Amino acid sequence: SRYVFDFSDGNKDLKDLLGGKGANLAEMTRMGLPVPPGFTITTDACREYLHTGTLPSGLLREVEDHLRLVEARLGKRLGDIHEPLLLSVRSGGPFSMPGMMETILDIGLNDTTVLALAARSGDERFAWDSYRRLIQMFGRTVYGVPAELFEAGPGDTAALRDLVATYQKVFAEYTGRDFPQSPREQLYGAITAVFQSWNADRAVLYRRQERIPHDLGTAVNVQAMVFGNRGPRSGSGVAFTRDPATGRRGAYGDYLPDAQGEDVVAGIRNTLTLADLSRIDPASHVKLLSIMEKLEQRFRDLCDIEFTIEDGDLWMLQTRVGKRTPAAAFVIAAQLVDEGTITLDEAISRVTGDQLAHLMFPAFDLDAAPEPLTTAVAASPGAASGAIVFDSTAATAADGPVILVRHETNPDDLPGMIAAQGILTSRGGKTSHAAVVARGMGKTCVCGAEQAVVDPVAETLTVGTTVLHAGDVISIDGTTGHVYAGAVPVRSSSVVRFFEGELSPLGDPLLAAVQRLMTHAGHVARLAVHANADTAADARRARRFGATGIGLCRTEHMFLGPRRELVEHLILGDHESALAELLPLQRDDFTALLREMDGLPVTIRLIDPPLHEFLPSLEDLTARVAAAQAVGRDPGLDGLLLAAVRRMHEQNPMLGLRGVRLGLVVPGLFAMQVRAVAEAAAARVAAGGDPRPEIMVPLVGTVQELDVVRAEALEVLSRVEGAPPIPIGTMIEVPRAALTAGDIAHAADFFSFGTNDLTQMTWGFSRDDVEGAFFGRYLDLGVFTVSPFESLDTTGVGELVRTAVERGRATRPDLPTGVCGEHGGDPASIHFFHDVGLDYVSCSPYRIPIARLEAGRAAV
Ligand code: ADP
Ligand code: MG
Ligand code: MG
User: Where does the PEP-utilising enzyme C-terminal domain start and stop, copy by copy (predicted)?
Assistant: First the structure.
């Protein structure tokens, strides 16, 4: 097989084989740009070396053949005592791993060739400076000589010659052998060291963080040296074809005269700008700009480059499609469309939902931030400051902004979470209740702050020696996980204000780009985007963010607060009057929602959670009853409630009396809700509106359940005059429902996948119980690469979704299908839902723009 490619043989599409650097050096060579000649040793060779521990047979012969070509081209030879060729040996894998691996410059220098270099260049100082750099880099990289042993910087020629002697001594003392005088030994040693650097600790760690596979290996680029350190007419620089921070047009760069290699980024001396270069060396500057333009045309994107000028000659040493901030990504994509370089379809594929999410978070002004108190899990991005509160009641009662601080949260904390600016917990990870709910609400959350001691009774938050009390201000950064004492100034997101209609995109390149790409995403998307929203206020926001319907209105949220009392009555037996009182309240809720979403579908889910979730906790009731009995008072209602809670207690509420099961067991409950929906719709019709409610039955496992509910609902609907036709569909969230979807479709006007429950039931674990218990370990072990609650498990749970769609549509070809779990707002999951042919995804209001963008991206 072939292990070595001359730069003139490769191209930019061979990144897997030649690495990113090698592939693009080859591309530039093919384009006729000034690239010092050289060749690339493939990642195949690296993988084989890492596997066997020896260089593949035949590799060295190929290297020698290619070396001869380079020597012939330049009229120099490696180790020649008159015309020595010097080489750089550079790592470069398929994915960029900045600064993670090794580069060795000036290979080929020894005690003899250094004199030839001095004579040829007429610059002794330069020759000795290059030699001491080689000993330093070679010693460090190939023999692991600690960098700090090579102390002291450049001086005059004599000083540098002495420095070479000193470095050679350091090398010999540390390694027990002399610095190799054989240029070939240097070259092979360097190649081997680059191969090995693939498995250096920091490289392994970096790959783990960036999810880059460990088995790719690195390529090695061997290239003739050019010298930026040959005096004032020479230098080295880095440049971008556009501003990578804002996307603004125009070349940006740093240049350092009389410098080599990493001097520019090392911050040893102050760098100059490209404008300075245009004064120092106008010819090179003009050439550089024209090359940058060619590169942009070839790569059709922002490029970053590394270049060197040797005695007035410009050389290109590297280019790649450059990293950029999320804002720049949007601006550049739109610019490239304007410039006729890419299509709008390509433009939306150049940005991601995650980047858009980033642009929607408020952020702290980091220049104004103090040292963080502690750093924990960055669970839901954003920046929030407020007074500490330790419970939901205090949060809802507070006037100003508050941060809710808890050990962990549960559904009872919901009102507090809604009222708070942000949530801080001392337990739980990225998938804890606090994290999931906060992300859904677009609310800042830092969780799992293990160094923080939360004492809700004493109302203190202690971190080390710092004790904070209720009312003290803290700031949390959900992007970094930092927690600060005191307030940190916040910048609000202009993109959110634009979506809210508060800012015009006119004259603002970022907002104009966001608008343009979002509009195009909407044109090409096949998936519609609906909102999970229970209140008119949420619905309004969802519409502003571009939702074209409500995919999930959870009616149980309408039973909280003062209405709990009615649920107590319902449970304690006074069914009819409780339902009669609930009816008008629900009707008003639905009327407001239908008014807000006039002309758009509103999918209303009948009550889902077990009724005992609406009662006070067993602990509270026991205490209250005991307190009453202690003073000889009749515990009254509390006594009855306590008995009811004991009676209704469930070992596994998630698998208990809930969803459709409640509807079949509690007489009149579903009928009341259906009637409220129908009467609300009739009221809207009477008011001249266009209500489009749909009724959704949760937790169905068999068509028989749905048949009963459907018959009852149709009967109720037939008795409400003036209501429009109201479809009755079901959630698919029990595995059995997915498998029997063909039967269920006979009784369902639509399917909506409840992927949260479907995930729990397919895996057999409950979200609330497992995240703290073993998810961290599973992620470490690689059992999961991402929590299946964050991103749909497409191989397992996804297969059920696919099956249900197929079987449902076999029964009813025009069956509408959607998804209303958390996954409806997750980019990777959205692409899957597009692929299996769903009609819409539904997600929380703040995720809607992200889902709209991803729905478009999935379609191009
Ligand atoms: P990294 O992957 O860390 O960017 P590089 O392989 O690009 O490492 O090498 C770092 C620097 O070394 C380059 O930016 C360039 O300045 C210098 N360098 C590499 N090859 C050569 C060469 N053939 N001639 C001159 N300088 C070189
Ligand atoms: Mg580089
Ligand atoms: Mg569910």
Answer: 514-856
Domain limit, last residue, from 492, 512, 541? 492
Model confidence pLDDT, tens digit, residues 207-221: 876 778 889 999 999
Q: Are residues 399 and 543 in the same domain?
A: no
State the pLDDT at residue 266.
58
Q: Are 825 and 709 in the same domain? A: yes
What CATH number did the domain enclosing 771 receive?
Answer: 3.20.20.60
Active site residue 433: yes
If asked whether residues 239 and 218 sit together in one domain, one would say: no
Is 225 close to ligand 1, i.e. is its CB under 6 Å away? Answer: yes
Ligand 1 centroid–CA 61 distance in Å is 25
Query: How many whole angstroms separate alpha carbon 140 and alpha carbon 142?
Result: 6
The pLDDT tens digits of the residues spanning 136-147 come to 999 999 999 998
What is the pLDDT at residue 744? 98
| 229 located within any domain | no
Residue numbers of the chain with a pLDDT score lower than 50? none
Candidate from 103, 134, 258, 260 with most ligand 1 atoms within 8 A of CB, to mutate: 103
- At position 464, the amino acid (one-letter code) is G
Task: Give the CATH number for residue 105.
Answer: 3.30.1490.20
What are the b/e assignments for 261-273, b being 16+ CB within 10 Å? bbbbeeeeeebbe
Res 805: pLDDT: 98
Annotated catalytic residue 569: no
Q: What is the pTM of this model?
A: 0.83
> What pLDDT score was predicted for residue 379?
82
CATH of the domain at 259: 3.30.470.20
The reply to whether 723 and 825 lie within a common domain is yes
| One domain for residues 270 and 378 | no
| Same domain? 41 vs 170 | yes
State the total domains in the chain: 4
Q: What is the DSSP string of 427-479?
A: S--TTSHHHHHHHHHT-EEEE--TTEEEETTTTEEEETTEEEETT-EEEEETT
For residue range 282-296, what is the model confidence (pLDDT) as tens digits? Answer: 999 999 999 999 999
What three-state secondary structure class fits 758? helix
* pLDDT digits 0-9 by tens, 330-350: 999 999 999 999 999 999 999
Q: Tell me, yes or no, whether 430 and 554 share the same domain.
A: no
The residue segments making up the domain with residue 266 are: 235-321
> What is the helix (H) or strand (E) element at residue 364, kind and residue range?
strand 363-364
Residue nearest atom 6 in ligand 1 by C-alpha distance? 90
- Residues 292, 296, 298, CA angle at the centre, nearest 5°? 115
In a domain, 375, yes or no: yes
CA–CA separation, 124 and 511 (whole Å): 56
In-domain check, residue 639: no
How many whole angstroms separate alpha carbon 15 and alpha carbon 219? 9
State residue 294's pLDDT score. 97
Which ligand 1 atom is at minimum distance from the Cα of 92?
2
Judgement on whether residues 543 and 583 belong to the same structural domain of the protein: yes
Instruction: Give the CATH number, domain containing residue 434.
Output: 3.50.30.10
The pLDDT of residue 147 is 84
Instruction: Kindly report, residue by residue over 487-531, the tens digit of the pLDDT.
Output: 998 877 889 999 999 999 999 999 999 999 999 999 999 999 999
Give ipTM to 2 decimals.
Answer: 0.95
Cα–Cα distance for residue pair 338/347, rounded to 1 Å: 11
Residue 507 within a domain: no
> How far does residue 263's CA lie from ligand 3's centre (Å)?
58
